[in-house]
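Bench notes, afternoon.
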Amino acid sequence: MHDWTHKLGYVVPSWNTVVEYETTRMLPAGVSAHFSRITHTDDSPASLRHMAEQFPAHVELLAHAKVDAVCYACTGASLFRGRKDDLADIARLRSGGMLVISVAGALVDGARHLGLSRVAVAAPYEKWLLDCLVTYLEDAGLQVTNAVGLGEQANVRHSPQAAIDLALRAWTPGADGLILSCGNFRSLESIPEIERRIGKPLIGSNSAALWSALSGLNWRGAVPDAGVLLSDVGRRDTTSPAHA
């Protein structure tokens, strides 16, 4: 029997189902996830901006449940305006005392935590959003060796095999690791296989979000079958503070 120790809040786009599916599969014993949704049915600048504007109200709603942390679980919405605005938004929301994270920030923090500096990037995004992702990562000090997208928005329809295929297309041997972005793109089942094929760590949106929340709450332990990042939470030396 395990004590119920942590409650994690997630704010997801209304069309997203993968965040809940993958997150609940990864949750350690004693940790629960609680979800709120924002209307979102397309990845356009206007829709992503709407997500950013509505996010603070949903943090407040999840605070009613006394969650320990809230994740802004839309990678595109957290990155498309740039790293500076994302950091500012998260800092304002953290001023109330709750741990708040963005998925885009978690991707960077996860990469830094594992000592990655050169990363290959894969995402199902259209080119304009893929370009925003690359800019966000480069502004955080990461060198992007290659970036490959699928050029579309209907990300949930893809199987985990599509994540493997996309990751291998994006991979470059000189990279330290791979960032596979998009919370609505099924990849959890693919992480062990991709890491085996490339011989380096993979940082995924949903795995990075969970790692960021757990490590930020000083949780210690391992999440099996979810990649190197979650294999030893809280037991490695972090080279930078969260969202620095």
